[in-house]
Amino acid sequence: MREWHGTRWFAKPFVFFTLIMLFKIYLAKYVLFADGSNWLPLITDLPAVWVVFCLIEWLAPKRKFGAYLAADLILTCVYFAVIMYYKYFGVVVTYHALQQVGQVTEVQGSVMSLLHPYFLLIFTDIVLFAILLAASKGFRQWRMQLAGREPRRIVLSLFLLSITICLANVWQSRASMNELKKSENMGIIPYQTVEIAAGTKDAVTAMVTDPKPPVDVTPAAIDEVKGITEPSTPQFQGIAKGKNLIVIQMEAFQNFLLGAKIDGTPITPNLNELLGSTVYFPHFYQMVGQGNTADAEFVVNTSLYVPKHGAASQDFGDRLLPSMPRLLASNGYDTATFHTNDVKFWNRKELYAALGFGKYYDKQFFGDDDLVFFGSSDELLYEKTAAKLAEMDAADKPFYAQIITMSGHHPFNIPDRKIRFQLPERFQGTLVGDYIEAQNYADYALGQFIAKLKQSGLWDDSVIVIYGDHMGLPIYSLTDHEKKLMEEEGLIGREYRPTEMMNIPLILSVPGIQGPKVMPQTGGQADIFPTVANLLGVSTKAQVHFGEDLLNQSSNLLPERYYLPSGSFINNKGIFVPGEKFSDGTLLGFGGSQPAASDATEDQYNRALKLLDMSDRYVQSLPKLN
To answer: What is the biggest distance separating any 2 CA atoms in the chain, rounded to whole angstroms?
Structure first.
C-alpha cells in the first residue's frame, strides 16, 4: 500500500497531471508550431491547464482523481482534434467544426490516413489509468486517498497568477487575423475559449437583430474594392449565346498534374491533349472552406465567398441564393447537377434547392455498381450522365449541367482494377503515388466522356468548363520523402509551397474561340460565374457577385479563408500570408519566384478583408427558403 501513498509531491494529482499535459502540449506544439519558441507553451498553454486544475482542487476535492481524469480526457481530445485537423486543413480547428461530425463516417478513410501512430501516444495515460482502475485494487485505494483540499492560499495564488497570464496573452493577440498565430500566442485552450465566447456573442446578436440588405454591397461597390472597371463592350460577349453549359468539377485535382511526367510517362495524357485546343488558365486558385467539394459548388455557382466558419452548404443552405442556375433558368435553360454520392452528404439536398437547380441526380440514379469510395466510379458517372445529357439536348432549349467527379478523393487508394499508371518503386506506398494513380484514372475516365460528347455533337454545341475543386496534397500531411518526390523535375521541380498547393486548373472549351490559348490572368473559383455568363450573353450587372470576367480583366484580388490563415490573399504576384498582422506577413511568389516587398500591399490586405465582410453581410441578409 505504501507505493500508492499520495503524500509525496510528485504523486499529487496536480503535479503528475501537469507533467502529463505538458507532454500533450508539446506534441501539439511540434505539429502546429514547429518553428516557434520551445519555451512559449510554458506561458501560454500551461497556465490555462492550471486554471482548470485549480478549479478541480476547489470544486471537487472528494472526487479529485475522477475530475482530473475527466479534464485530462477532455483536454486530450481537444489537442488530438487540433493535430488531426491541422494535418489536412492547415488551420486550427474550433468548435464550429462540430457541425461536420456527421460527415466523419463518410470520410473515415481520409481521417485514418492522416493518423500517424505517434499521435495515439496522446491517449496513453488515459488507457493506462483505465487499466489500473480495472485491474489494481491498490491503485483504486490510492485514488481514494487523494481526496482533500490543497492549501487554499497556494491554490488561489496559482489560480490568480494563471488566469492573469491567460488574459494577458489573449489581450496581446486579440487583433491578429492569423488563427495559427493567435493560437500559438494565446495558447490552444485559451484560443478555443475565445472562439466559443465570440461565437456565443454572434449567435445572441443574430437572434435579436434582423439583418437588412447592406446598401454598400453592390456590383459597382465590389468592383471599386477589387480595383477593377467593367469594359463597356466586353470581349467575347455572347459568343456562345444559346449554347449548352457543361461544368465538370474534378475531385482534388491540382494544376501541377497537367504536363507532369514521372520517368517520362505523362500523368494526364487526355487533359494534356485537350490543352491544345482550349483556353487554359494556369494561375487559377481554390476558394473553398470547411465544406471542400460542396463549397466549390457554392462558390462557382454564386460567385460569393464561403462562410468564416463551417461549410457553405450548412450555413447558407437555407437561403434563397442568387446563382448561376437561377440566372440561366430565367434565360430559358434547364438545369441539373450530377453526383454519385447520396445527396444528403454535406447537406447537398438543401444546397441544390438554395442554388435553384431544377433537378439533381445522386446515388439513387447512379446506383451501387462499380463502387469507388462513396459511390459509383467516374466512368459510370460519365456514362450515365452522357445518356441523360443526350435526353436533355433533345429538348427545345439549352441546358446547364454540373458534373461532380469523386474517384480522385483523398486518400486516393483506388481499387486495383482502376489503376492504370505504373508507379516506380520510390513512389509506391506514398500519398503522392496514390494521388498520381487516382488522378491518372480520373484523366482516363474524363477522356472517355470527352469522346462521348464529341461523338454526340454536344462538345461543339456547348461551353465546357473543367476545373479542380480543391487541393489533393496538403503540405501539412506530407512526409519529408513525399515532399522530395514533389520536387522532382517531372512534377513541381522546386519546393512544394502553398502557391502550388492552392493552384488548380481552369480549362474552357468555347464554340467560336480557337485554342490553344494560355491566359496569364490570376483567377479563382468565384470568377467562373461572371466569365461564363459573358460568354453565354447573360448579364450579371444587376446581380451581386464577387468574381470577375477573366477574359476581360487583367488583375485580381482573391481573399482566402481556409488552408491558409485568415487575412491571406492572392494577387497577380503570389500568395500573401499574414503573421500576427500585415507587417510581418510573407508573400510567396508564383513559380518559386522571389517577389518584391511592394508586390503585396497593406491596402490589398485591407481590401481583401473588406470583400469577405461584404460577402458575409450580403448572404446573411438574403431571404430564407420557405
So the answer is: 90
H helix and E strand count, the chain: 22, 17
The stretch 274-303 carries a mean pLDDT of: 94
Residue 33, pLDDT above cutoff 50: yes
pLDDT of residue 552: 96
**Are the C-beta atoms of residues 159 and 14 closer than 8 Å to each other?**
no
Chain mean position to CA 32: 17
Contact present, 403 and 380 (Cβ < 8 Å): no
Instruction: Please give the C-alpha separations between residue 607 and each of 101, 452, 469, 612, 614, in angstroms, as whole numbers.
Output: 34, 45, 25, 9, 10
Half-sphere exposure of 4 (CA within 13 A, CB side): 14
List the Cα angle 111/468/90 in 5-degree steps: 40
Cβ-in-10-Å burial (0-12, 13-18, 19+) of 389 comes to buried
Phi and psi at residue 8, in whole multiples of 5°? -65, 145
Contact 67, 455 (CB under 8 A): no
Q: What is the mean pLDDT of the chain?
A: 89
Nearest to 408 by CA among 533, 292, 560, 541: 292
Question: What contacts 58, CB < 8 A, 6 or more positions away?
Answer: 149, 155
Q: Name the CA dihedral angle for 178, 183, 185, 187, rounded to a multiple of 10 degrees.
A: 170
Q: What is the pLDDT of residue 5?
A: 42
The Cα–Cα gap between 553 and 521 comes to 8
What one-letter code names the amino acid at 146? L
How many CA atoms lie within 13 Å of 276's alpha carbon, on the beta-carbon side?
5
Residues sharing a CB contact under 8 Å with residue 485, sequence separation 6 or more, in sequence order: 426, 427, 430, 432, 433, 491
Question: What DSSP designation does 624 have?
Answer: B
| Residue 363, C-alpha cell as written in the block | 446515388
CA–CA gap between residue 86 and residue 80 (Å, rounded): 10
State residue 1's pLDDT score.
39
3-state class of 206 per DSSP?
Answer: helix
According to DSSP, residue 253 is labeled -
Which stretches of 513-605 are assigned E, i.e. beta strand? 517-518, 523-524, 558-559, 569-570, 574-577, 586-589
Lowest mean pLDDT among 128-142, 227-241, 249-263, 408-422: 128-142
Gap between the Cα atoms of 122 and 116, Å rounded: 11
CA distance between the termini of the chain? 68
* Residue 101 pLDDT: 53
Residue 87 and residue 31 in contact, taking contact as beta carbons nearer than 8 Å? yes
| pLDDT 10s digits, 234-267 | 999 999 999 999 999 999 999 999 999 999 999 9
Using DSSP's 3-state secondary structure scheme, residue 151 falls into coil
Q: What is the mean pLDDT of residues 209-222?
A: 85
Q: How many CB atoms lie within 10 A of CB 186?
A: 25
Model's pTM, two decimal places?
0.89
> Would you state the cell numbers that stand for residue 227, as one nine-digit string?
480595383
